[in-house]
Each structure stands twice: as C-alpha cells, then as structure tokens.
Amino acid sequence: MKTAISSKKRPVIKSETPKNYKSGKEAGEAKARQIEKLFDGADWTTFKK
Amino acid sequence: MDGPYYDFTASDDATVFWFKSTNGDKIIEKEVRYTATFLPDMYSLALVDVLSDGTVSDVSRPRQGDVEKVLATVIQTIHTFLATRPTATVAFAGSTDARTRLYQIAIVRELSKVESAFVLQGYLNGAFENFVPGTVYAAFAIRLKQSKS
C-alpha cells in the first residue's frame, strides 16, 4: 500500500540570501557586529589566551 | 594555477587581502578583511566577492574545485595577519550555517599544517573549547601560540 503523497512533509531547506554591501569595509563592519553578537554572553573562562 | 592557494596582495597594515579566484575563463575578485571588534584584541574575518560595480557580496557561489583553494588562501591570510599582530585573535563564522560548515571542512584539512603554531578553538553553546574535528561549531577563534619563556 502506497503512502499518500500529501502526508509527506517537505524538507525545510535554508537558502542562502546574498548580502550585498557598498564596500568591503561595510561588509567587514557587519561581520564584526555578527561576531560581537554571537559572543555576547560567552563564558570567557573557556577562552584560551 | 594548481598551487594549494592563490597568490594574494595585502594592504600596508595587513588587514585587507585581495586575490583572484580563477576557474576556466571566469575570474572572481575576492577580498579578505580583518576588522577590530569591541572585544579586546579580537578581529573578525570577512570573505567577500568584489562585484563588477565595486560593491561586495558576502555569499558567493564557489564552484566545485575552487572552494578548497579559496579557503586555503584565506588560511594563508590568517597566517600573515597574525604574524603582524602576535597577540590578536581572529574570530570567524560563516554567513550561513552551511558556510560555517564549509569553513570547518577547510580548517580540518589545514589543521595539520597550523596546529603547531596556532591555538584553534571552536565556539559552541556559549563556550569555547579546543577544536575537535567532527563537532559542528557556531564560530571559530584562532591565535598564535604564545611561547613560554
């Protein structure tokens, strides 16, 4: 007995949305803010210096 | 052409690097930029395509056979950048989860070449840990090993 197609769930595919910037400097600043946000609240005792 | 990484040029302060990704007759200008964050001595890494109108895109579509060489070139720029800033840390994450995993593949491949000189940590669930191949990290932090003496 075949499974009804309608019961299948479509896989969620995360697409890449290109981000354009006016300049490399602007892209670099955006990446710096991303890192700051990502590391906000990090446990810095685990960070090796 | 068939070398492990592309030749690149650097800005005078060694914070911006440029190289040409070539595959067949297509040439894509790439820029690697290190930007200071508000975190002490920590710099972010951005890899972008320079488009024909001078704008840049942070999500490129690397072609098969080229991506490894592109990422190997990025690793080389990390060497150069940290050589001029021995106490700095470079932090990087992909613009997407898929891109971060791509970085991780490159790191695993290059790790044997850099592990003697660098400290590499992965960032996961709010904490840093020594990089473990096979673990999926949200970001990475790399710095020079400090000599004890």
Question: How is this fold's topology laid out?
Answer:
The complex is a heterodimer of chains A (49) and B (149).
Chain A: E1 20-21, H1 24-39
Chain B: E1 8-10, E2 16-23, E3 26-36, E4 42-50, E5 56-57, H1 67-84, E6 89-92, H2 97-114, E7 118-124, E8 127-130, E9 139-144
Parallel strand pairs in B: 4-6
Antiparallel strand pairs in B: 1-2, 2-3, 3-4, 4-5, 6-9, 7-8, 7-9
Can you characterise this structure?
The complex is a heterodimer of chains A (49) and B (149). With 49 residues, chain A is mainly alpha-helical. In chain A, 33% of the residues lie in helices and 4% in strands. Chain A contains one helix and one strand, in the order βα. Chain A is elongated, with a radius of gyration of 21 Å. In chain B, strand 3 (26-36) and strand 4 (42-50) form a beta hairpin. In chain B, strands 1, 2, 3, 4, 5, 6, 7, 8 and 9 form a nine-stranded mixed beta sheet that branches. Chain B is α+β, with helices and mostly antiparallel strands. Chain A binds chain B through residues 14, 16-32, 34-36, 38-39, 41-43, 46-49, and chain B through 16, 31, 33-39, 42-46, 48, 50-51, 54-59, 89, 91-93, 95-99, 119, 121, 123, 126-130, 138-139, 141, 143. Strand 1 of chain A pairs antiparallel with strand 5 of chain B.
